Amino acid sequence: MPATPADDTLRIHGFAALRPGPRLLVMGGVHGDETCGTAGIERVLGELADGTLALQRGQLTLVPIANPLARRRLAREGERNLNRAFMPRTVPVDNEDRLANLLCPLIERHEVLLDLHSFESRGEAFAMIGPRDNDGPLEPFARAAEEGRLALHLRTPTVVEGWLDIYAAGLAQRAGGAAPGAEALGYGCGTNEYIRSRGGYGVTLECGQHRDPAAPEVAWRAIRRTLALLGMAPLPPALAGEGPPPAPRLLRLAGVTDRLHEGDRFVRDWATFDAVCAGEAVGLRHDGAVVAAPGDGFIVFPNARALPGSEWFYFATRSERVLG
Length: 324
Known about the structure:
Layout: E1 13-16, E2 23-27, H1 36-50, E3 59-63, H2 68-73, H3 95-108, E4 112-119, E5 126-128, H4 144-153, E6 158-161, H5 163-174, H6 182-186, H7 191-197, E7 201-209, H8 215-229, E8 249-259, E9 265-266, E10 275-276, E11 281-284, E12 290-292, E13 297-300, E14 310-318
Parallel strand pairs: 2-3, 2-4, 4-7, 5-6, 6-8
Antiparallel strand pairs: 1-3, 5-7, 8-14, 9-11, 10-13, 11-12, 13-14
Helix pairs in contact: 1-8
């Protein structure tokens, strides 16, 4: 494993209004090849510097690049995926452990998290939210209405729920039906799962495909809309007068299919949210066996370059959940 360079520095920008209010943390660059969140945050920093944006209440913290090593390499990871097994470590062993030891206390000091990402496949921007209110063992939560309201006001065409549920189901599937242990489940926890475990709430915004020139604008608009929703700063003129947010398409992750062999391939170049019908061929195994859609639904996060044994694509269905 490569040694972590000593010159990688985490930049954290903090702003506090004199009037009390929400404590909002905005992060970009959790994955080094996802640059749109950084661009959106840097634009907001410029507005704060030139007076175009003034914080009216509460506290705002901006982290433009949450994983400096990964960004320097323009790779998804520095030494591993920062958005997995996200928790403090008594004995950190890699770059991401050291970052988590800095970021976890930072997250704990905030009430709301907006985490800005992008994705590899073609597709439009969407928001990801956590569970509905529950007191179950997997991810107990009591702030689903606030989280859903934030996702609604980001104004993406689609909102997706069900990440940790489907992650646990995927683990059980790979283990032949055995229930996953706490350590295995912990690997599925990222930044938003962490803030929920500490009493806050968070939304992941996937701003579009990595190289989409519109993605930085999506990130900037999301930050400004979040500040306005929380009463921390008014909308800029470019976004004023938008009217009530339209109801998005709400999907629930319902299944995950792994790539098992390097010869497994898709039957076409799928994009996130491409619709499929029950029984429709999605891919072919290396031996020619057809991988079919389990029902009517949508392809999410198709990854033609997935390593054998890892997630190849997710399958989602429409959800009856109401946001806000």
